[in-house]
Amino acid sequence: MPVRPTAIAFIALVALSACQSRPPSRPASFPALDIHIAHINDHHSHLEPTPGFELEIDGIATRAEIGGFPRIAALFKDSGSLPNLLKIHAGDAMTGTLYHTVYKGEADAALMNTVCFDAFQPGNHEFDEGDAGLRKFLDHLRAGPCATTILGANIEPAIGTPLAPRSRDDTLRPYLLKTFGEVTVALVGIVTSGKTVNSSRPLPTTRFADETASAQRAIDELKARGIRHIVLVTHQGYEADKAMAEQLSDVDAIVGGDSHTLLGDFSAFGATGPKAAGPYPGVARNRDGDPVCIGQAWEYGKAFGLMHIRFDERGSVEACGGNLSLVLGDDFAQQDGSGNFVALDDRARQKLIGRLAGEPAVRVTRPDPAAQAELTRYSHRLVEMKQQKIGIAQEALCLVRVPGEAGNRSAGIDGCAAANTLARGSDIAQTVAEAYRQASRLADIALQNGGGIRSGLPQGAVTIDAAHTVLPFSNTLIEIPLTGQQVIEVLEEAAANHLDRKGSNGSHPYAAGLRWHLDMSQARGRRFSNLEVLDRASGEWRALDTRRDYLVVTSDYLAGGGDGYGRLAAIHRNGRSTDTYRLYTQTFIDYLQEKGAIARLPAAEYSHQQVIAKDGLLLRGDDR
What we know:
Blueprint: H1 7-18, E1 33-40, E2 50-57, E3 60-66, H2 69-78, E4 85-89, H3 98-103, H4 106-112, E5 119-120, H5 130-142, E6 149-150, E7 155-156, E8 175-180, E9 183-191, H6 193-199, E10 207-208, H7 211-224, E11 229-235, H8 238-247, E12 253-256, E13 282-285, E14 291-296, E15 303-311, E16 317-335, E17 341-343, H9 346-356, E18 362-364, H10 369-379, H11 383-386, E19 389-393, H12 427-440, E20 445-449, E21 460-463, H13 464-470, E22 476-483, H14 484-499, E23 509-512, E24 514-519, E25 528-534, E26 541-543, E27 549-555, H15 556-559, H16 566-576, E28 578-583, H17 584-595, E29 597-598, E30 608-612
Parallel strand pairs: 1-4, 4-5, 5-6, 9-11, 11-12, 12-14, 16-18, 19-29, 20-27, 24-30
Antiparallel strand pairs: 1-15, 2-3, 3-16, 7-10, 8-9, 13-14, 15-16, 16-17, 19-21, 20-23, 22-27, 22-28, 24-25, 25-26
């Protein structure tokens, strides 16, 4: 398929950048160069397409499959004829579906090897099963026909550990050099440091250096070698990428991941279409005042990024262009006059495909046959397990991390259009916490972090595969006695992790058997108020007693200090906690099977009873 450059933005930046003065460190003359960067990030073991993704096309609600790694592979291969092409994966390939639960990265590596990425930057979730788990995945990746370079300029494993059995660069390289004609382009890899240490499970001996300092050190080394075209491949989030760009000299582009940021213009698809965080590509200014092209490709293989960068004779960015496109299948259903979705016949389908051919925001794509064959090889062994029905969701259980957050993680799920704007926050996190509390039998309170939930649930049948998509990790449940005062301290620390310490907002707390008022505009220590505990015996809500002991059930991940829960980890280490050895996903499955049908909990049982956002805005209450 042809590349569709965003011509207006491209020309505008040409004019803008022409007015910028150049630092004297740039060479007086350098061959002009155009490069293309095809990229994805955060596919999280979502190898199959997501069905029922909803868009509005010419005012008509329309559903189609979105994503699927074989379609992503097709787009990478379709881009292969472009001059000076770089193929990049910006991390978090693993964890998220049953494919990871069963195959531990083998299936992801097999599909990635149908693309042959030039570079892969491991994300924080690549360390979820430690350095040994990452090494096993990378061994699968390197067993294929590709020579994908594994980046990591700020990852420093100890010699003798799985990532560095003999030397520092056994597995990871700080950068990759690609030569196009007379010009060399460098790809430098950076992963978020604090989040990887706090939210995953790397070895204590594996050091994660400061992101910005590591990037500049690599850039300076490359400059000393006469290399002037530098692209960072990062896994730290879009906002962090923009902030880093401003602090660095001589960086030209950043291709990133981690924040699952959608960029581009999807206004043609109406109110039900996805909402982007900004244009694609974004443009920042580095410390020299030069443009920096910044791109990210949303999540789960739903989007494909194709960036076009033009360098001038001084080796500086002259213009940024390209598109981020939603990757759609070629079968569609549209809403009829009765509100039902009806599959289009072949004539209407071909007409709609022709209509979408002129839209840069979508790519209607058939799966690559070789990639589809690889996927089929793995999927055949999962079919029976994946399709086993364990219950029914009577209404959508929406995914939210922090009430009032800007992005909607449940975009495309019917009934979740405004979920991120409501005080109650995450329906699915609330339900999972309730499953924990009921599984424990003894616990007064169940504690769950918003980031530990990886997917919402649409209305309809719930399968084992769906349960593993919601809770994809290998965590067990831990019971820990806490005083009421310690409960407050744990909650305050969890919120402070993202409000004050710039850590992952996945730390944001949800609970069953505990409810509160939250004011995120206040300082730490004053955010949580009106805390009440649901008494197991009487079924009545009572004020939290700071001096009383409560039994709290949570995942071993949080009990170990993951996502910034250091206070909880300190209590866990004193030996008073009990590991139930119950897998948390199985707990959720058991809850669904026992209930048969689930829906959103009564409003009074949500942990967030009233929420004031960081900007002081009182969030809207339950909309039911």
